[in-house]
Amino acid sequence: AIYNLGSINIDYFYQVEHLPAPGETISAIEYMVNLGGKGLNTSVAAQRAGADVRHVGAVGRDDAVVRRMLAELGVDDTRVVGVEAQTGHAVVYVDAASENSIVIFGGANQAIDETNVRAGLDGAGPGDWLLLQNETNANELGLKIAREKGMKVALVAAPFETGALVDLIGQVDLVSMNRTETAQYEAALGQAVREVQGPAFLLTYGAEGSVFIDGESETRVAAFAVDAVDTTAAGDTFFGTFLAQHAAGAGIKEAMRFASAAAAVKVTRKGAAKAIPKAEEVRVFLRS
Ligand code: ADP
Known about the structure:
Shape: globular
Number of strands: 13
Order of helices and strands: EEEHEHEEEHEHEHEHEEEHHH
CATH superfamily: Ribokinase
Distance between the termini: 31 Å
CATH architecture: 3-Layer(aba) Sandwich
Helix content: 25-40%
Strand content: 25-35%
Mean pLDDT: 96
Low-confidence stretches: none
Number of helices: 9
Oligomer: single chain
Bound molecules: adenosine-5'-diphosphate
């Protein structure tokens, strides 16, 4: 199974004419509320790709609204603990040119303790994956407990922050980064990803595809040419799908191709978690 120790956010979207300037008050043209967070998005992607996913995380105690949203997405919340903090959320302004400004409140995602992680990973063992992103306070704890249990560990190195994340990257089995994160990592390290010993890297380059680097070997897969309308969660879809395929024993190239197809379908649809395709929809796309 894939144990995803990851963020859960309620995303509040406001479509606006222009992004508000300091001191300015403006009216929104449209308003939407969706469940998001990198962690939750990758859980949905891996699950829709067919994996057995156990989402491990935290929301506000007694937050029935977020639990109902999890149920609507088909995410089991048994291992999502209620804590004394508000559910994480993001306030997103998107202007007419699709430029955005985002404020994230970590809340419950930043209030996960060792007891929560141990309970969340109960029953996990060798052969299982732990998936991490950089939106909770529990990555070091997760890594430590996963190693005790003999699990493999994958990390989506986003959002990129130097310090703890750079150290963490060197300690996991598989790392996923987009173009920006790869550049930030290489700048922080003063070294090219190809020279880093240890983890395998899956690097994504938007419409230019992706490359998997494991020691000496490199595997490249092109992106599918589609008319993108919303690239939100492209990377989350790509990596969740890749890991689901990889964990199920697919070859690297095959898993990358399927993940590229899933991400291509996603970018043709508006929205994050809700817009992530199921395996059957990806197969239909690949046959088309
Ligand atoms: P992130 O969303 O994390 O910034 P990327 O933009 O690199 O990640 O996208 C991840 C993957 O999604 C790419 O490797 C590609 O397979 C797919 N993808 C992203 N944007 C497009 C696009 N415009 N057209 C087709 N595929 C895309």
